[in-house]
Amino acid sequence: xSINSLDKSSNQKINNQQVEQQNVNTKVNTxxxxxxxKDPVSLTQSFQESSKLQxxxxxxxxxxxxxxxxxxxxxxxxxxxxxxxxxxxxxKKESEL
Length: 97
Description:
Blueprint: H1 8-30, H2 45-59, H3 64-76, H4 83-96
């Protein structure tokens, strides 16, 4: 099985960081002590790296036929997961970390 994109938790983490940054910006702009738009903003190194990674993921090729087949199988309740195979792959990825 080839992994061509971020897993859901990584993707959610990136989205959460972006939402948090937007919330901070909204609070700053709507507070009574409005900060000038000329004030510098710096993003953490990990946020910058995750943004770059997310951009690369969106450029990755997607096998639309495979996605459609899997989506169809899930919708019909026919998609089966081999739990032993999944556990083996999770353990392998964990050992690589």
